[in-house]
TrEMBL record:
Pfam families: Oxidored_FMN, Pyr_redox_2. SUPFAM superfamilies: FAD/NAD(P)-binding domain, FMN-linked oxidoreductases, Nucleotide-binding domain. This is 2,4-dienoyl-CoA reductase. Residues 9-333 form the NADH:flavin oxidoreductase/NADH oxidase N-terminal domain. Keywords: Flavoprotein, FMN, Iron, Iron-sulfur, Metal-binding, Oxidoreductase. The lineage of its organism: Bacteria, Pseudomonadati, Pseudomonadota, Gammaproteobacteria, Alteromonadales.
Length: 680
């Protein structure tokens, strides 16, 4: 028998009345299926795939214990016996494997996106348009009963336990902190009063469900907001949570309104496990740590060094349902790693769309995007080894098709090779590692440094051709642009990111979409991905925990001397960066502000001269005296081969940038690839 490289990760955890198969918790994620018509059957397939993949314990997306606590008007709720029936589909599906599943009970409080929200005090949240009503004592006591009844219904529905959400700035967390709790009764004031809702809720739930039922309490160990709790207050609460009857304590990091990134790609791996380790000295029940743990190596290190008793990973199980089994079989190099982009998961949920995953579009579509063996095996040519071409090749080969993949450059990856150069986007290396491994396992023939012609393809006997040839720059109409190219004053983003052309100290970037932000980041910022200590300090997080919320004073946050003078410009009059991801865009903007980057909106480009770029803003012309102008705007689909192939009678499919040349979009490209592969 092969010994595993991850003995701590795969060790069982004895909870006394029950045992978990390993130390892996699939953390809570709202998928949107909870509210879809017929969504629970799809949700059951989603969770079952992760249970089959070997995860020890699953926590569902947040479900409210009553109507006022719902996330949105039609949000998930479990407060009536008839609502429990549909949950049986989920628990029955999961329990076909040795995996436990807990329902997360989440009351949004002032984060409610509807006018019926309630909170400890009448204080509006910055992330909801609605002002909550302050709860009466009667409402508080009624809410505690609702939690307990919800937990009882969860037990009836077959759940092994519940997770009580007490972090991330939701209701229980709102009560616990003076930031949002201004009460002067027995539910406000001292920490003993402010944490009363949490403690009474745990006691009420335990009384309702008995001893042989898992209760996880999600404790906010780092609020990361002004008016958050001190370390002493967090410890006081943790000890009371243990005494009240919780089985496990899960780590919560940061409120949703915190101005510290906690989960995006640029956050170093396992950047917050130190706070769980700090808490291990204070309580004796098992502790779960979380945030940006995305490989079995990182998880094993966290457990082996005693920082926690379990690790929580949420998005990594969107990226790969078989994460645990692959680790157990010593096949970690076959794991499709979460890159922390949020583009198809959290950004979708905030837009009221179904969650999925950029690198795994099958996530939450287990019953709709299904890889099955093809009835008729075809010989397929794929032109372009970027995200779209790679994904299609892998999915089509899994179906049994003979795939040959061509690219004119010397490595696979396309635009991912550009993205991986950007500080904070190093996780893209993992996606390329995954695709390289799949190409090897599936025996996909790859021809690099090979430019194809229609004549060659028509003569090679292919049944169909997939063009994943991406985009090519569109000519911009700016006076002096061509002369600028010939003098090397004007550069394309590919020359900067891919070809490493030298760039001067004063730079103007034309185009403030995702590519423009990437170039500005590349030219201005030193990567802190591999230096968690420096990263935490840069974002104002105090590991010494000397102040409430673990925030540094402004004077203690390092100031940056900009490496370059950069101006990021767009034609649109909207806020620069408005089109970036909902959950990550603010981080990119804040990073560039820290680096002293100037952002200009509503500009028109008049001319490029020897001195620099002439623009017009608000009717006034101005000259930006710069060494280089970098073009990050204007592209069109590269479909040069399409018509000749069609004329030659060969079926042609367009995916990725070759299909739509708007902002480079790996999420759309990989999904298109999957959708084509399952039907070709």
């Amino acid at each position: 028998m092969t010994t595993t490289a991850y003995p701590h990760l795969l060790a069982p955890l004895d909870l006394g009345f029950t045992q978990l198969a390993n130390r892996v918790l699939m953390g809570s994620m709202h998928t949107g299926l909870e509210e879809e018509r017929g969504g629970f059957a799809k949700l059951a397939a989603f969770y079952q795939a992760r249970a089959k993949g070997g995860v020890g314990l699953i926590v569902t997306g947040g479900v409210s214990p009553n109507l006022r606590g719902r996330i949105a008007p039609f949000g998930s709720e479990l407060s009536h016996f008839w609502q429990a029936n549909k949950h049986k589909q989920v628990t029955d599906a999961v329990h076909q494997y040795p995996t436990k599943i807990c329902l997360q009970l989440l009351h949004t409080g002032r984060y409610a996106y509807h006018p019926f929200g309630v909170a400890p005090s009448k204080i509006k949240s910055p992330i909801s348009p609605f002002t909550p009503k302050a709860m009466s004592v009667r409402q508080i006591k009624s809410t505690i009963k609702d939690y307990a009844y919800s937990a009882k219904l969860a037990a009836k529905a077959g759940y092994d336990g519940v997770e009580i959400m007490g972090s991330e700035g939701y209701l229980i967390n709102q009560f616990a902190c003076v930031r949002t709790n201004k009460r002067n009764d027995e539910w406000g004031g001292s920490i003993e009063n402010r944490m009363r809702l949490a403690i009474e809720t745990i006691k009420a739930v335990r009384a309702k469900v008995g001893e042989n039922f898992i209760i996880i309490f999600r404790l906010s160990m780092l609020d990361l907001v002004e008016g958050g709790n001190s370390w002493e207050e967090v410890v006081t609460m943790a000890k009371a949570v243990e005494q009240a009857g919780a089985t496990l304590i899960n780590t919560g990091i940061g409120w949703h309104e915190a101005r510290v990134p906690t989960i995006v790609t640029s956050v170093p791996r396992a950047a917050f496990t130190w706070v769980t380790e700090k808490m291990k000295k204070e309580v004796s029940i098992p502790l779960i740590t979380t945030n940006r743990i995305n490989t079995p190596e990182v998880a094993e290190e966290v457990l082996a060094t005693g920082q926690a008793d379990m690790v929580s990973m949420a998005r990594p199980f969107l990226a790969d349902a078989d994460f645990v089994n692959k680790a157990a079989e010593n096949k970690a190099d076959e794991i499709n790693t979460c890159i922390g982009c949020n583009q198809a998961c959290l950004d979708h949920v905030f837009a009221q769309k179904r969650a999925s995953c950029l690198v795994n579009p099958m996530a939450c579509y287990e019953t709709e995007l299904v890889i099955e063996k093809a009835k008729q095996v075809k010989k397929l040519a794929v032109i372009g080894a970027g995200p779209a071409g790679l994904a299609f090749s892998v999915y089509a080969a899994e179906r049994g098709h003979h795939v040959e993949l061509f690219d004119k450059i010397s490595e696979i990856g396309g635009q991912f090779n550009v993205a991986k150069q950007v500080p904070g986007k190093e996780e893209f290396f993992e996606t390329l590692r995954y695709f390289n491994k799949q190409i090897s396992l599936l025996d996909i023939k790859v021809y690099l440094n090979t430019e194809q012609s229609a004549e060659k393809l028509l003569a090679a006997g292919f049944d169909e051709v997939v063009l994943a040839t991406g985009i090519k720059p569109r000519k911009l109409d700016i006076k002096g642009l061509e002369e600028g190219y010939t003098s090397n004053k004007v550069l394309t983003y590919l020359q900067v990111l891919r070809d490493k052309v030298e760039v001067g100290n004063k730079v103007a970037i034309i185009g403030a979409g995702g590519i423009g932000f990437d170039v500005a980041t590349y030219l201005s910022e030193k990567s802190l991905t591999n230096d968690p200590e420096a990263w935490l300090k840069n974002w104002g997080v105090d590991k010494q925990y000397l102040k409430n919320g673990a925030l540094l004073s402004k004077q203690d946050i390092p100031k940056h001397d900009p490496a370059r003078h950069i101006t990021l410009i767009q034609r649109k009059t909207t806020k620069v960066g408005k089109g970036l991801g909902k959950t990550s865009g603010w981080v990119h903007r804040a990073n560039l502000v820290k680096q002293g980057v100037t952002m200009l909106a509503g500009a028109s480009y008049k001319a490029i001269t020897e001195k620099g770029l002439v623009i017009e803003v608000d009717g006034k012309e101005q000259l930006l005296e710069v060494d280089n102008i970098i073009i990050c705007a204007g592209q069109e689909s590269n479909r040069d081969l399409q018509q000749k192939l069609i004329d030659g009678g060969l079926p042609v499919h367009l995916i990725g940038g070759a299909n739509v040349a708007a902002e480079l979009d790996a999420k759309r490209a990989i999904r298109q690839a999957a959708e084509l592969a399952v039907k070709i």
